[in-house]
Amino acid sequence: MFRRSYNRAVLRVRITTATPLRIGAGDLGLDPSAADLTCVRTRHAAHGTTVYIPGSSLKGVVRATAEASIRGQRLAGGEAGACDDPLDDKDGQQSCGARHQKQPDAPTYDIYRNHCLVCRLFGSLAIKGRASLRDLFPWSTDPRADTAFAPGGDNQISANRLELRHGVAIDRILGSVKHGPFDQEIVPAGVAFFGDVALENYQIWQLGLLAAAFDQLNDGIAQLGSSKSRGLGVVAATVEEIIHEQIGRAAQPCGVAALATPEEREAYGLLAETALPASDGVPHGLATRFVVRDQATAWLAAGRKALGALL
After folding, report:
1. pLDDT by residue (tens digit) across 133-144?
2. pTM of the entire structure?
3. Which of 3, 91, 127, 232 is the most buried (most CB within 10 A)?
4. Measured between alpha carbons, how far is 105 from 288 in angstroms, rounded to an integer?
């Protein structure tokens, strides 16, 4: 499936903190005055040191949320919604990646066809995923965005004006302090982070699975970062723009199953497609590009419809 690019898309995503957020750094560093639990930071060459949301952190939450919502369900054709936990090393573990690692000589199309829906989108130890979630920063590069969200603007300043919260760990038996007190840095509520989700050779139901996971974040069912039980990590996820490209001079956007050959659809076990809303495309190199901003909500709704039609 990756030897030829049929379609691809970039979703411009905004994550807004509804409650404070903490994504912890992997080490404490050498600053003796730093908090016990610090937020993850990165150094941007143009905009300096800043807090950010790693793409891996967002992908982990989105994938876990998608798995929880679809695990245990099977399609009419017998495909599983989600496999077992790939990080669970118990005997008899049946994750897609572990199962197909035992078949190193199996053709790619056979491996993909026998993967669950979640692994088809996010990948496994055996195949690359369709979705790539990139790092999110507290500024937008969109020239149409409000000046507060421009690099160096009020939003970036607010995101890096971290709060310091004090806490203790309570002994569950004695009810007394077991560890602490300790300090932890948190990003304040009300700041926005901007980033992209890239899709390649994707079907419309895969767009719907992403949308369903974002819905869980927006409803507060899923949370981002650590200290969730302490009230942190509630966010709102918004897809502000979708840039979709597909091969040829197609009149309307569509999923990869509508672009692949009948032989490829059968070999890879591609599922039935649902039409996307009609949009105007423009030539872009050898492809046709569709840029949707006001229609982004309608595209996500079409994805949810495609996903629901499979179950």
Report:
1. 999 999 999 999
2. 0.90
3. 232
4. 36
